[in-house]
Specification:
Two copies of one chain form a homodimer. The first copy, chain A, has 148 residues and is α+β, with helices and mostly antiparallel strands. The first copy, chain A, has two domains: 86 residues, Arc Repressor Mutant, subunit A (Orthogonal Bundle), CATH 1.10.10.10; 43 residues, Dna Ligase, domain 1 (2-Layer Sandwich). Chain A has five helices and six strands; from the N terminus they run H-H-E-H-H-E-E-E-E-H-E. Chain A is globular, with a radius of gyration of 17 Å. At the A-B interface, helix 5 and strand 6 of A face helix 5 and strand 6 of B. Strand 6 of chain A pairs antiparallel with strand 6 of chain B, so a sheet runs across the interface. Chain B binds a DNA duplex (25 and 25 nucleotides) through helix 2 and helix 4.
Chain lengths: 148, 148
DNA sequence: TTTTATGCAAACATTTTGCAGTCAC
DNA sequence: GTGACTGCAAAATGTTTGCATAAAA
Protein backbone atom coordinates (compact mmCIF):
# COMPACT_ATOMS: atom_id res chain seq x y z
CA UNK A 1 0.00 0.00 0.00
CA UNK A 2 1.12 3.47 -0.86
CA UNK A 3 2.32 5.63 2.00
CA UNK A 4 0.61 8.95 2.57
CA UNK A 5 1.14 11.65 5.13
CA UNK A 6 -2.57 11.87 5.92
CA UNK A 7 -4.82 9.01 6.97
CA UNK A 8 -7.64 8.22 4.58
CA UNK A 9 -10.26 9.15 7.14
CA UNK A 10 -8.72 12.56 7.67
CA UNK A 11 -8.22 13.09 3.97
CA UNK A 12 -11.81 12.14 3.15
CA UNK A 13 -13.14 14.40 5.88
CA UNK A 14 -11.18 17.36 4.60
CA UNK A 15 -12.27 16.65 1.08
CA UNK A 16 -15.95 16.40 1.97
CA UNK A 17 -15.76 19.70 3.76
CA UNK A 18 -14.31 21.50 0.79
CA UNK A 19 -16.84 19.94 -1.57
CA UNK A 20 -19.68 21.07 0.66
CA UNK A 21 -18.21 24.55 0.87
CA UNK A 22 -17.94 24.92 -2.90
CA UNK A 23 -21.62 24.13 -3.44
CA UNK A 24 -21.15 20.71 -4.96
CA UNK A 25 -22.56 17.55 -3.51
CA UNK A 26 -20.90 14.55 -2.00
CA UNK A 27 -21.64 11.02 -3.13
CA UNK A 28 -20.65 7.45 -2.50
CA UNK A 29 -19.03 7.38 -5.95
CA UNK A 30 -16.77 10.32 -5.15
CA UNK A 31 -15.76 8.71 -1.85
CA UNK A 32 -14.90 5.40 -3.41
CA UNK A 33 -12.92 6.84 -6.29
CA UNK A 34 -10.78 8.62 -3.72
CA UNK A 35 -10.53 5.49 -1.60
CA UNK A 36 -9.45 3.39 -4.56
CA UNK A 37 -6.79 5.87 -5.56
CA UNK A 38 -5.65 6.32 -1.97
CA UNK A 39 -5.12 2.61 -1.38
CA UNK A 40 -3.73 1.74 -4.78
CA UNK A 41 -0.06 1.26 -5.51
CA UNK A 42 -0.60 1.79 -9.19
CA UNK A 43 -1.57 4.64 -11.41
CA UNK A 44 -5.04 3.62 -12.48
CA UNK A 45 -7.00 4.24 -15.66
CA UNK A 46 -10.66 5.27 -15.59
CA UNK A 47 -11.68 1.78 -16.57
CA UNK A 48 -9.58 0.20 -13.84
CA UNK A 49 -11.09 2.50 -11.23
CA UNK A 50 -14.55 1.58 -12.43
CA UNK A 51 -13.85 -2.14 -12.32
CA UNK A 52 -12.36 -2.03 -8.84
CA UNK A 53 -15.37 -0.11 -7.57
CA UNK A 54 -17.78 -2.61 -9.06
CA UNK A 55 -15.94 -5.86 -8.43
CA UNK A 56 -14.10 -5.23 -5.19
CA UNK A 57 -16.39 -2.79 -3.40
CA UNK A 58 -19.70 -3.74 -5.08
CA UNK A 59 -20.50 -0.10 -5.71
CA UNK A 60 -22.73 1.07 -8.55
CA UNK A 61 -20.34 2.95 -10.79
CA UNK A 62 -20.67 4.00 -14.41
CA UNK A 63 -17.65 4.80 -16.51
CA UNK A 64 -19.14 8.24 -17.23
CA UNK A 65 -19.17 9.00 -13.55
CA UNK A 66 -15.52 8.05 -13.27
CA UNK A 67 -14.57 10.42 -16.07
CA UNK A 68 -16.74 13.22 -14.71
CA UNK A 69 -15.43 12.77 -11.19
CA UNK A 70 -11.84 12.47 -12.22
CA UNK A 71 -12.13 15.70 -14.18
CA UNK A 72 -13.78 17.34 -11.19
CA UNK A 73 -10.97 16.16 -8.90
CA UNK A 74 -8.35 17.39 -11.33
CA UNK A 75 -9.91 20.84 -11.31
CA UNK A 76 -9.93 20.77 -7.52
CA UNK A 77 -6.26 19.81 -7.70
CA UNK A 78 -6.87 16.62 -5.74
CA UNK A 79 -5.63 14.23 -8.40
CA UNK A 80 -3.17 14.35 -11.28
CA UNK A 81 -3.25 12.58 -14.61
CA UNK A 82 -0.36 10.88 -16.32
CA UNK A 83 0.09 10.01 -19.97
CA UNK A 84 1.70 6.58 -20.15
CA UNK A 85 1.56 6.56 -23.93
CA UNK A 86 -0.76 3.59 -24.40
CA UNK A 87 -3.96 5.52 -25.04
CA UNK A 88 -5.60 5.62 -21.64
CA UNK A 89 -4.70 8.24 -19.06
CA UNK A 90 -3.73 7.15 -15.57
CA UNK A 91 -4.70 8.95 -12.40
CA UNK A 92 -3.14 9.31 -8.98
CA UNK A 93 -3.84 11.28 -5.83
CA UNK A 94 -2.03 14.54 -5.44
CA UNK A 95 -1.53 14.46 -1.68
CA UNK A 96 1.99 13.10 -1.37
CA UNK A 97 5.14 15.12 -1.79
CA UNK A 98 5.53 16.07 -5.42
CA UNK A 99 7.27 13.41 -7.45
CA UNK A 100 8.08 12.70 -11.05
CA UNK A 101 8.12 9.51 -13.07
CA UNK A 102 10.50 7.27 -14.95
CA UNK A 103 8.76 4.94 -17.35
CA UNK A 104 10.53 1.92 -18.79
CA UNK A 105 9.89 1.77 -22.52
CA UNK A 106 10.34 -1.97 -22.44
CA UNK A 107 8.30 -3.29 -19.49
CA UNK A 108 6.32 -0.07 -18.82
CA UNK A 109 7.04 -0.09 -15.11
CA UNK A 110 6.59 3.31 -13.50
CA UNK A 111 9.25 4.44 -11.03
CA UNK A 112 8.56 7.50 -8.91
CA UNK A 113 11.30 9.86 -7.86
CA UNK A 114 11.82 13.28 -6.36
CA UNK A 115 14.70 15.61 -6.94
CA UNK A 116 15.10 18.93 -5.22
CA UNK A 117 17.54 20.35 -7.73
CA UNK A 118 15.08 19.86 -10.55
CA UNK A 119 12.19 21.22 -8.50
CA UNK A 120 14.09 24.39 -7.68
CA UNK A 121 15.42 24.85 -11.16
CA UNK A 122 11.89 24.69 -12.58
CA UNK A 123 10.94 27.66 -10.48
CA UNK A 124 13.98 29.57 -11.66
CA UNK A 125 13.30 28.77 -15.31
CA UNK A 126 9.65 29.80 -14.95
CA UNK A 127 10.62 33.11 -13.40
CA UNK A 128 13.08 33.74 -16.20
CA UNK A 129 10.26 33.40 -18.71
CA UNK A 130 7.80 35.55 -16.78
CA UNK A 131 5.72 32.44 -16.29
CA UNK A 132 3.72 31.64 -13.14
CA UNK A 133 4.33 27.97 -12.48
CA UNK A 134 1.28 26.07 -11.29
CA UNK A 135 2.35 22.52 -11.89
CA UNK A 136 4.66 20.43 -13.96
CA UNK A 137 5.10 17.01 -15.44
CA UNK A 138 8.46 15.47 -15.86
CA UNK A 139 8.75 11.99 -17.24
CA UNK A 140 11.97 10.23 -18.06
CA UNK A 141 11.78 7.43 -20.61
CA UNK A 142 14.39 4.72 -20.81
CA UNK A 143 15.26 1.23 -19.62
CA UNK A 144 14.88 0.14 -16.02
CA UNK A 145 17.41 -1.95 -14.15
CA UNK A 146 15.77 -5.22 -15.15
CA UNK A 147 15.50 -4.39 -18.84
CA UNK A 148 18.98 -3.24 -19.76
CA UNK B 1 9.60 30.19 -39.36
CA UNK B 2 11.34 27.90 -36.92
CA UNK B 3 15.15 28.00 -36.95
CA UNK B 4 17.00 24.77 -37.55
CA UNK B 5 20.67 23.96 -37.76
CA UNK B 6 20.25 22.03 -41.02
CA UNK B 7 18.64 23.28 -44.22
CA UNK B 8 15.53 21.43 -45.28
CA UNK B 9 17.17 20.20 -48.46
CA UNK B 10 20.07 18.70 -46.54
CA UNK B 11 17.78 17.24 -43.91
CA UNK B 12 15.49 15.64 -46.49
CA UNK B 13 18.45 14.20 -48.38
CA UNK B 14 19.87 12.60 -45.24
CA UNK B 15 16.49 11.26 -44.31
CA UNK B 16 15.85 9.71 -47.72
CA UNK B 17 19.18 7.99 -47.58
CA UNK B 18 18.49 6.41 -44.23
CA UNK B 19 15.03 5.32 -45.33
CA UNK B 20 16.47 3.67 -48.41
CA UNK B 21 19.15 1.97 -46.34
CA UNK B 22 16.63 0.52 -43.90
CA UNK B 23 14.64 -1.14 -46.68
CA UNK B 24 11.61 1.11 -46.53
CA UNK B 25 10.37 3.19 -49.41
CA UNK B 26 10.28 6.91 -49.86
CA UNK B 27 7.14 8.73 -50.87
CA UNK B 28 5.79 12.17 -51.55
CA UNK B 29 3.70 11.86 -48.39
CA UNK B 30 6.73 11.25 -46.20
CA UNK B 31 8.53 14.19 -47.77
CA UNK B 32 5.67 16.57 -47.24
CA UNK B 33 4.99 15.56 -43.66
CA UNK B 34 8.62 16.35 -42.91
CA UNK B 35 8.41 19.60 -44.88
CA UNK B 36 5.30 20.69 -43.02
CA UNK B 37 6.87 19.97 -39.65
CA UNK B 38 10.14 21.59 -40.66
CA UNK B 39 8.54 24.85 -41.71
CA UNK B 40 5.91 25.03 -39.00
CA UNK B 41 6.22 27.21 -35.95
CA UNK B 42 3.64 25.16 -34.12
CA UNK B 43 3.37 21.71 -32.73
CA UNK B 44 0.92 20.12 -35.12
CA UNK B 45 -1.67 17.39 -34.66
CA UNK B 46 -2.13 14.61 -37.20
CA UNK B 47 -5.25 16.27 -38.50
CA UNK B 48 -3.52 19.61 -38.88
CA UNK B 49 -0.68 18.01 -40.82
CA UNK B 50 -3.20 16.32 -43.08
CA UNK B 51 -5.10 19.53 -43.75
CA UNK B 52 -1.98 21.54 -44.51
CA UNK B 53 -0.84 18.88 -46.97
CA UNK B 54 -4.17 18.84 -48.74
CA UNK B 55 -5.05 22.53 -48.67
CA UNK B 56 -1.71 24.28 -48.89
CA UNK B 57 0.36 21.82 -50.92
CA UNK B 58 -2.47 20.08 -52.81
CA UNK B 59 -1.04 16.67 -51.95
CA UNK B 60 -3.15 13.53 -51.71
CA UNK B 61 -2.95 12.67 -48.03
CA UNK B 62 -5.12 10.39 -45.94
CA UNK B 63 -5.26 10.68 -42.19
CA UNK B 64 -4.22 7.03 -41.89
CA UNK B 65 -1.03 7.82 -43.76
CA UNK B 66 -0.28 10.65 -41.39
CA UNK B 67 -0.65 8.41 -38.34
CA UNK B 68 1.36 5.61 -39.92
CA UNK B 69 4.10 7.95 -41.04
CA UNK B 70 4.27 9.82 -37.79
CA UNK B 71 4.65 6.54 -35.91
CA UNK B 72 7.33 5.48 -38.35
CA UNK B 73 9.19 8.75 -37.83
CA UNK B 74 8.94 8.42 -34.08
CA UNK B 75 10.50 4.98 -34.24
CA UNK B 76 13.27 6.42 -36.40
CA UNK B 77 13.68 9.12 -33.77
CA UNK B 78 13.08 11.85 -36.30
CA UNK B 79 10.07 13.36 -34.61
CA UNK B 80 8.74 13.62 -31.07
CA UNK B 81 5.20 13.70 -29.80
CA UNK B 82 3.80 15.99 -27.17
CA UNK B 83 0.71 15.56 -25.01
CA UNK B 84 -0.93 18.96 -24.76
CA UNK B 85 -3.81 17.57 -22.75
CA UNK B 86 -6.62 18.30 -25.19
CA UNK B 87 -6.92 14.82 -26.62
CA UNK B 88 -4.85 15.03 -29.79
CA UNK B 89 -1.11 14.50 -29.75
CA UNK B 90 1.12 17.12 -31.30
CA UNK B 91 4.25 16.37 -33.27
CA UNK B 92 7.50 18.22 -33.87
CA UNK B 93 10.80 17.51 -35.58
CA UNK B 94 13.55 16.24 -33.37
CA UNK B 95 16.45 17.97 -35.11
CA UNK B 96 16.92 21.05 -32.98
CA UNK B 97 18.71 21.18 -29.67
CA UNK B 98 16.66 19.43 -27.04
CA UNK B 99 14.11 21.68 -25.42
CA UNK B 100 11.20 21.44 -23.03
CA UNK B 101 7.84 23.15 -22.96
CA UNK B 102 5.81 25.54 -20.84
CA UNK B 103 2.12 25.46 -21.59
CA UNK B 104 -0.19 28.25 -20.46
CA UNK B 105 -3.28 26.73 -18.92
CA UNK B 106 -5.27 29.80 -19.90
CA UNK B 107 -4.40 30.60 -23.53
CA UNK B 108 -2.61 27.27 -24.30
CA UNK B 109 0.40 28.99 -25.83
CA UNK B 110 3.46 26.72 -25.91
CA UNK B 111 6.78 28.25 -24.91
CA UNK B 112 9.96 26.31 -25.59
CA UNK B 113 12.94 26.51 -23.29
CA UNK B 114 16.20 24.77 -22.57
CA UNK B 115 17.96 24.51 -19.27
CA UNK B 116 21.33 22.86 -18.81
CA UNK B 117 20.95 22.37 -15.08
CA UNK B 118 17.79 20.35 -15.55
CA UNK B 119 19.27 18.35 -18.42
CA UNK B 120 22.30 17.39 -16.36
CA UNK B 121 20.29 16.62 -13.26
CA UNK B 122 18.08 14.22 -15.21
CA UNK B 123 21.12 12.18 -16.10
CA UNK B 124 22.23 12.14 -12.48
CA UNK B 125 18.80 11.08 -11.26
CA UNK B 126 18.60 8.33 -13.87
CA UNK B 127 21.97 6.97 -12.88
CA UNK B 128 20.96 6.98 -9.24
CA UNK B 129 18.01 4.76 -10.10
CA UNK B 130 19.97 2.39 -12.31
CA UNK B 131 17.94 3.63 -15.22
CA UNK B 132 19.23 4.13 -18.76
CA UNK B 133 17.79 7.43 -19.91
CA UNK B 134 16.70 7.48 -23.53
CA UNK B 135 14.48 10.52 -23.60
CA UNK B 136 12.42 12.71 -21.39
CA UNK B 137 9.47 15.02 -21.37
CA UNK B 138 9.25 17.96 -19.10
CA UNK B 139 6.29 20.25 -19.29
CA UNK B 140 5.61 23.15 -16.98
CA UNK B 141 2.00 24.25 -16.66
CA UNK B 142 1.06 27.71 -15.46
CA UNK B 143 0.20 31.20 -16.66
CA UNK B 144 2.17 33.02 -19.31
CA UNK B 145 3.13 36.68 -19.15
CA UNK B 146 -0.03 37.81 -20.95
CA UNK B 147 -2.40 35.79 -18.80
CA UNK B 148 -1.37 36.64 -15.29
C1' DT C 1 8.35 -7.96 -60.27
C1' DT C 2 8.34 -7.78 -55.65
C1' DT C 3 7.50 -5.27 -51.69
C1' DT C 4 6.12 -1.40 -49.28
C1' DA C 5 3.01 2.69 -49.19
C1' DT C 6 -1.26 4.75 -50.03
C1' DG C 7 -6.43 6.26 -49.55
C1' DC C 8 -10.62 4.92 -48.16
C1' DA C 9 -13.80 3.15 -45.07
C1' DA C 10 -14.70 0.40 -41.34
C1' DA C 11 -13.24 -0.79 -36.79
C1' DC C 12 -11.58 0.34 -32.44
C1' DA C 13 -10.61 2.63 -27.93
C1' DT C 14 -11.17 6.34 -25.02
C1' DT C 15 -13.75 10.07 -23.51
C1' DT C 16 -17.90 13.13 -23.59
C1' DT C 17 -22.74 14.23 -23.72
C1' DG C 18 -28.01 13.94 -23.37
C1' DC C 19 -31.44 12.33 -20.67
C1' DA C 20 -34.53 10.54 -17.23
C1' DG C 21 -34.33 9.26 -12.78
C1' DT C 22 -32.00 9.56 -7.99
C1' DC C 23 -29.93 11.50 -4.17
C1' DA C 24 -27.77 15.17 -1.17
C1' DC C 25 -28.56 19.16 1.27
C1' DG D 1 -37.98 20.98 -3.26
C1' DT D 2 -34.09 22.44 -5.80
C1' DG D 3 -30.03 21.49 -7.95
C1' DA D 4 -26.28 18.51 -8.44
C1' DC D 5 -25.15 13.58 -9.35
C1' DT D 6 -25.91 9.11 -11.29
C1' DG D 7 -26.08 5.12 -14.86
C1' DC D 8 -27.06 4.10 -19.29
C1' DA D 9 -26.74 4.51 -24.06
C1' DA D 10 -25.59 7.21 -27.83
C1' DA D 11 -22.32 10.28 -29.79
C1' DA D 12 -17.98 12.31 -30.44
C1' DT D 13 -13.11 12.11 -30.81
C1' DG D 14 -8.62 10.29 -31.86
C1' DT D 15 -6.24 6.43 -33.68
C1' DT D 16 -5.61 1.85 -35.95
C1' DT D 17 -6.52 -1.78 -39.26
C1' DG D 18 -8.04 -4.40 -43.58
C1' DC D 19 -8.09 -4.22 -48.20
C1' DA D 20 -7.55 -3.23 -53.01
C1' DT D 21 -4.76 -0.22 -55.68
C1' DA D 22 -0.62 2.55 -56.69
C1' DA D 23 4.05 3.54 -56.54
C1' DA D 24 9.02 2.74 -55.38
C1' DA D 25 13.15 0.00 -55.91
Amino acid sequence: MRKHEVSFEQFLKNFKNSVAKSGFKNSIQKDYILKILYFSDDHLSAEQICNIAKNMYKIDMGIATVYRTVKFFEEMNIIKSLDVGDGAKRYELNISIHHDHMICTNCHIIIEFTDDVIEEQQIIVSNNHNFVLKDHIMTIYGLCGNCH
